[in-house]
Amino acid sequence: MPLEVGPDGAVPAAKRFRSTMIGASVLAMRTLGHFDAYLKHLPAEHRETILGSVAGTWLEYRVGVAHYCAADALGLTNEEQLEIGRDVGRRVHSTIFGTIAKLAKTAGVTPWTGLAQQKRLWSATIDGGAVAVYKLGPKEARFEAHGVPELVAIPYFRNAFRGIYVRGSELFCKKMYVSEIASCTQRGIVGYRLAWV
Predict the structure, then answer these.
(1) pTM above the 0.70 mark?
(2) Is the pLDDT of residue 98 over 80?
């Protein structure tokens, strides 16, 4: 699944962020006991928008960036960030990932089934940017998300997003290994190497 670019040869910059993902992230922080600390780091100008948003609506991209910056300021370990991402993944399976979850119950599906849906899933979450999936082997792939440099710069986002991937992959295989690709991060791209058994 190659990267799609605009007529000018560039990936369109992200413009909006789906409230469903941010809301699920806030709920995960509540569940895991980080909500009060998160609020201390969330700029007052974005509190009402984030805490009062209705699931499934679009929020300005800068609101999503503010959310992930506040979460990053908590100073959680990579494992804690990954766990929040896994919790978000669990919460959104019935909404954004509902179709894939249904497919997973059908005999013969593999992680390639989910990976084939990445463009649709991305556009359901972020308006703008683009994703690509490259096959590296029978059970190995590389995922890239372009056009979101502000998010790439936030370690919390990269770790939590990795957690969402890990959780989603549990629908299709026994075990998924997802590791961040540092060379992608250095180029302003969210990049993961995926391998499964």
Answers:
(1) yes
(2) no
